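Human: Respectfully, please carefully check these tokens:
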Amino acid sequence: MTTPQWGPPSPNPYPPQGMPSPYQGGYPQQAPMGYPAPGGYPQQGPAHFGLAMKRRNVVAVWLGLPLITLGIYGLVWYYKIHKEMLQFDSRRNISPTGSLLTVMFGGFLLGIPALVSFYNTGNRIADAQRAAGLHPTCSGGIGLLLCFFLGLGPLYYQGELNKVIDHYGNPQPGTQLPLAV
């Protein structure tokens, strides 16, 4: 009795008679980084790429949209910037959902987890600035202090994120971009 095959049949892993196998000779030869490859040219390090973030109006992020939506946009914005920073540099360990939930429910523990998350957001933005090849100017401490002063934290953080986007010439969101570091 044979078992049924699900899905399309798999291609034959063995080439026809007389054709060279891609597996003959073992793994392809690779030289250590910086040394000439078998062809004589030096090997380059692996290039890192990320997706462009959306450029947002800082006043709309800070005041306009949160007032219109009764504060809901602030949470949406917080989630979106974390998701965009993750897509911009996937080498960083960023959890958009975890960051949002920490801000939403961190008040149960005297707000300390929410404050830590907001502080870490500034550090993540500084990491994104480094990845773009910029000198990091964003500070989690300044963002946290501005959060207490008229809620200026989102204004500051979005302005710092816009520096990264402007560095690349304001590309369309989702465009693939090379990363510096």
